[in-house]
Design goal:
globular; binds magnesium ion; binds adenosine-5'-diphosphate; single chain
Length: 138
């Protein structure tokens, strides 16, 4: 079974849509295999988004990601990475397809409610970044 990491970002927690987001993943047949709330420091957000460190939006993105609590989860299922990416919709909610999380719930390209890993290698890094051996079976 494939695994992926998803985050309900600080805007999603502020908007009371934690259950809505997780419910959409569950309706896709995905299993929540690890779950917790956390408040990321700026440095922790920078480490998570290190691949984007050269992007012009890096400072603003990591400020946003450390602006309030987030919900971190690992999901398991066949094609989990693509299922989550499909449920999320395009990065920019204005370009996201109808019925996707970002189209339905997000305000901007930065404050876009949800994160999902984009490939098996990034999923492994991201799950390991947030969950230890006690919290998720390797
Ligand atoms: P995705 O989350 O869809 O995989 P990226 O990996 O490209 O998108 O970007 C990571 C996050 O950085 C996005 O989810 C969004 O919060 C933020 N972001 C991406 N592009 C921009 C941008 N042009 N301006 C501001 N924030 C952005
Ligand atoms: Mg991405």
């Amino acid at each position: 079974m494939e695994r992926t990491l998803s985050i309900v970002k600080p805007d999603g927690v502020r908007k009371n849509v934690i259950g809505d987001v997780i419910g959409r993943f569950e309706k896709q047949g995905l299993k929540v295999v690890a779950l917790k709330m956390a408040s990321l420091s700026k440095a922790e957000a920078e480490g998570f988004y290190a691949v984007h460190s050269a992007r012009p939006f890096f400072a603003s993105l990591t400020e946003f990601m450390s602006s309030g609590p987030v919900v971190l989860m690992a999901l398991s299922g066949e094609g989990a990475i693509k299922k989550v990416r499909d449920a999320m919709g395009a990065t920019d909610p204005a370009k996201a397809a109808p019925g996707t999380i970002r189209k339905d719930l997000a305000d901007s390209i930065e404050s876009n409610i949800v994160h999902g890993s984009d490939a098996p290698e990034t999923a492994a890094f991201e799950i390991g970044y947030f969950f230890n051996a006690l919290e998720i079976k390797r």
